[in-house]
Amino acid sequence: MRTNKSSIHGCMATGLILAVLLGGCTVGPDFNRPASPDVTSYTPEPLPGQTVSAPVPLGRSQRFVQGGRVKPQWWRELGSPRLDALIDEALLKSPTLAESRATLRRAQELYAAQSGSTLYPRVDANINGQRQRFSPSTSGQEGDATEFSLYNAGVGVRYNLDLAGGNRRALEALAANIDYQRYQLEGARLTLTANIVTTAITRASLAARIEATEAILHSQEDQLGLTRERVRLGQAAPDDELALLTLAEQTRATIPLLRNQLQQTEHLLAVLAGRAPGTGGLPSFSLEEFSLPAILPVVVPSELVRARPDIQAAEAVLHAANAEYGVAVANLYPQLNLSANLGSQALTTGALFGSGSAVWSLVGQLTQPLFDPGLPAKKRAALAAFEAAAANYQNVVLESLRNVADVLRALDNDAQRLTALAAADAAARASLESMQRRYALGAAGYIELLVAEQQSQQTRIDLIEARSRRLINSAALYQAMGGGRSSAGEDVAMSSSVDKRQ
């Protein structure tokens, strides 16, 4: 019994040594990270060092800092504590992030399952019993048939030596999928925070535009009332009244549209924060509570590929495709499987672990595909998948560069537009003040004063939209630059410890 066990242990040790010696070869190309973009700027013409300024709220100049770094909690640069609190709530309650965290954990567990079944031998314990009837006549002998029970117990070990490295390539593909899901989580987090910021600013802008539009409508209604009185007195034509009535009703019709947009932003904010729209309790944002970041970090193009989660997710897909191509190549090479069994055989269960007979076996099987037309086709398909992933990666990088270029140009143009609108607003207010003085002196009529007020309010609406665009595009630049990374990493770490199922 001892001699048999020693033989088996020696055979198993030999098999493990062979596994180490023969398992070091991995066919197929090793993955090399794509080169960084060889461009030095995002736009054909160089950007100004800073934007122009305007003497209005949210009109400060913004300075572009080349090679800067985005802070992980970049939204705090907007200076709204209520926005910060809402985002903190969303990061904890968002079902979108919960889904991404669970998907990441699934990828991690799939890797653990595959590595456990391929990197290490499989050991199984088995025990069985059977009732047999043996007749001596089957071997040409005389005598009565004999019935007896036979019991077996043993331990079996199986291991694939992975000569060509197919199993290791498969694990490499699963590891790349973990990276992909991690970057998907970071992207979901970045998208969530950017959507909340944009929606909050849009809500504040819509509230201000509704207020200005209602002021215009009030002025038009006053003007319409005066015109009706003049028509009654015969000092104005009925067509004048109809023209003003049309204008007032057109203005009135825009208010429900703006209010509907405002209510939709409230519903969207609730869902982004992980609430039902009917629960209420959301903050009512105003443009006055936001501040414009004075410094805008601009990550250089060569580093953008390491900053944006969408680019890194595309790289992870490329890595997985490269590893899967290696699996397809490895399938063309010999496969060597080893199995060993050690056990005991007895006629009674009591003797099974005592005086039973020791049995053992050691089997090695080498398989080399000789004719299988499907394997080369699978290899070509895997190569095509890799080429598609490479093209997708290039497209994601180009689209990211375009996204950054668009936002940078928008920031510069928005600042110029706000400067022009600020000048128009100053002129409209000066014109209104002049008209108010003329009206007080009797040199201008009330209708002229109302027209001046409407022009001033309309300019104010344009100014509100321009101010909100500067805030939104500042947030868009943070998003285009990748939104920082450390907080996303904390999210990933939290996914491994919070709500973990076993």
What does this structure look like?
By secondary structure, this protein is an alpha+beta fold. It is 61% helix and 12% strand. It has helices spanning 2-22, 81-93, 95-118, 166-232, 238-272, 301-307, 309-330, 349-352, 374-441, 446-480, 486-497; strands at residues 63-66, 122-134, 146-160, 295-298, 335-346, 357-367. The protein has a four-stranded antiparallel sheet. A two-stranded parallel ribbon has the order 1-4. The chain starts with a helix and ends in a 5-residue tail after the last helix. Residues 1-23 and 487-502 have low confidence and may be disordered.
Q: Which structural class best describes the helix and strand composition?
A: alpha+beta
Q: In sequence order, what are the helices and strands, one letter per element?
A: HEHHEEHHEHHEHEHHH
Can you summarize the main beta sheet? 4 strands, antiparallel
Estimated radius of gyration: 38 Å
What percentage of amino acids are in beta strands?
Answer: 5-15%
Intertermini distance: 41 Å
Biggest sheet strand order reads 2-3-5-6
Q: What are the segments in which pLDDT stays under 50 over at least 5 consecutive residues?
A: 1-23, 487-502
What best-fitting shape do the alpha-carbon axes yield? elongated
The overall strand count is 6
The DSSP helix count reads 11
User: What's the helical proportion of residues?
Assistant: 55-70%
Give the averaged pLDDT, no decimals.
84
